Amino acid sequence: MRHFTPRQLKQYLDQGGDPLLLDVREPWEFQVCALDDVRLIPMGQIPAAAASLDREREIVVICHHGIRSRQVAYCLESMGFANMINLSGGVDAWAREVDPHMQTY
């Protein structure tokens, strides 16, 4: 698993990187704030939804502070997903470092 800071992810996306952005927060959290072009699958639904994900595609896992996303990335790696990236600091750090207009909670 790799770890990106929010600035590293922003730069990667700006340079044409095309990973799946996978948000594993709860729907109420997602409604408060989210990155663009993100797929929401709450953490508790990951085991059942894993079959719908491309095992070969790069996946950036996102949560509030980077803890749940790291756990989900480890879980997906154990299921055979090879290209996992954890967003260190989560959407909270994204709001502080990349998008100061993003609502926080």
> At the first level of CATH, what is the class?
Alpha Beta
CATH-wise, what's the superfamily?
A: Rhodanese-like domain
> What's the architecture in CATH terms?
3-Layer(aba) Sandwich
Strand content: 15-25%
Instruction: Give the radius of gyration.
Output: 13 Å
Number of domains: 1
N-to-C order of helices and strands: EHEHEHEHEH
Number of strands: 5
Please give the order of strands in the largest beta sheet: 1-5-4-2-3
Q: What's the average pLDDT?
A: 97
Main sheet: strands, sense, barrel? 5 strands, parallel
3D shape: globular
How many helical stretches? 5
Uncertain spans: none
For this structure, the CATH topology is Oxidized Rhodanese, domain 1
Structural class: alpha/beta
The residue fraction in helices comes out at 25-40%
N-to-C span = 27 Å
Walk me through what this model shows.
The chain has 105 residues and is α/β, with parallel strands linked by helices. It has one domain (2-97): Oxidized Rhodanese, domain 1 (3-Layer(aba) Sandwich), CATH 3.40.250.10. The chain contains 5 helices and 5 strands; from the N terminus they run E-H-E-H-E-H-E-H-E-H. A 5-stranded parallel sheet has the order 1-5-4-2-3. Strand 2, helix 2 (27-32) and strand 3 (38-40) form a beta-alpha-beta unit.
